[in-house]
């Protein structure tokens, strides 16, 4: 990292009116914009309307992101990184170029930083200064420092407010936020009125417009601003269950969905594999986090070959990582459920690992045969909070790993779809020790030398100011490959509780206000989709 430890303006106004500092680095954000940005990057026009973000933390570096809204074909901004929130103890500056080709995204990698250290950063154009972001580098490779993660998935804009994000953003000691897919939904499902907007996002322009709407949410912007992220996609970044659709989305549509995810996320592209998102992120000796991509490499049956959900190269990479890892905890982020979910012996979700039993068996046999311990799967997709034992294929009574399925941020739960109670689900699937398809929120994971603790935090999504509460907490001792639920093993979901009391007149007025607020949220999304040809 090149560093300029020179005095900088100390207020946002001074930052805005200051002349361009000598740049310590210039960066062309992606190959898509390289031809347009072959000239040296310069600070140009534009405003920061979409917040800031950080991601991909290592012990000595971080990826920083923002976006310039400008009518100019190309522009640029200065990045300032400092040890203090006032941006006076500067450790790096950089001028980063952008263009309309990459939708105004600004992205660069800052290295040479101190391990496990909090840094602050802001971007400056000729017209504007971004909010000040906060981020943190990873612990050093030889560190046994405890690690705290949080994770979520399935944030459907029109179905509710991102109240779980508001709670997670209040954490001041988070090492990494893991987003497990369905960051945005290509269609507008309108619960409560039985309406679905026809069509949806299908091309580059409509995916970009949809992403911009999602980033307009203040709680999502704040969560990006204060924590470093890693992200993988599931299906709705392109289309629902798109690998099994007939007809399937075109290669152009899939590329558009992937591209927009890269444009708006603090993630660098790999020149040889432009759309690769799977891989490992180390956080000292305490844990590794291996993210999976379970959409891009799927294959159907043919020529006597098994159906694949991860693909040969990715599955081999995961197996090799699990074998070689010396981390105390081996975290695997899977966008879809690993453990079976069955009723009357029939899988309920063949779009998940249940539909790819050969690859699942290969992975679990590898863990069991290698005696690989302390593997924890963090899961998204299914809109249910679950805590599952992962059983050895050859010994159904032995738990060889654990799986903690995070409920959705806002997407509708599956209780009504199943038509059965959570207790019925658990009796049919005895490895499922906790099941709640009613609540919404996120998971928090505290990793220590002797145990891992997973906490589910939930909040109402029908009003933006709803307070969060703890739904359940689980403790997994090191080496146990199993867990207990703190406070007992109760699994009763809200759907099995007592009926709520009738609403009072004051509550009815409040309920009407909430309904109006959600209606406005849905109308915003509907306008975006219609403006980009959603009725085609």
Automatic annotation (TrEMBL):
<keyword id="KW-0378">Hydrolase</keyword>
<dbReference type="InterPro" id="IPR032093">
    <property type="entry name" value="PhoD_N"/>
</dbReference>
<dbReference type="Pfam" id="PF09423">
    <property type="entry name" value="PhoD"/>
</dbReference>
<protein>
    <submittedName>
        <fullName>Hydrolase</fullName>
    </submittedName>
</protein>
<dbReference type="InterPro" id="IPR006311">
    <property type="entry name" value="TAT_signal"/>
</dbReference>
<feature type="domain" description="Phospholipase D N-terminal">
    <location>
        <begin position="51"/>
        <end position="137"/>
    </location>
</feature>
<dbReference type="InterPro" id="IPR038607">
    <property type="entry name" value="PhoD-like_sf"/>
</dbReference>
<dbReference type="InterPro" id="IPR029052">
    <property type="entry name" value="Metallo-depent_PP-like"/>
</dbReference>
<dbReference type="Pfam" id="PF16655">
    <property type="entry name" value="PhoD_N"/>
</dbReference>
<dbReference type="InterPro" id="IPR052900">
    <property type="entry name" value="Phospholipid_Metab_Enz"/>
</dbReference>
<feature type="domain" description="PhoD-like phosphatase metallophosphatase">
    <location>
        <begin position="149"/>
        <end position="455"/>
    </location>
</feature>
<dbReference type="InterPro" id="IPR018946">
    <property type="entry name" value="PhoD-like_MPP"/>
</dbReference>
<dbReference type="GO" id="GO:0016787">
    <property type="term" value="F:hydrolase activity"/>
</dbReference>
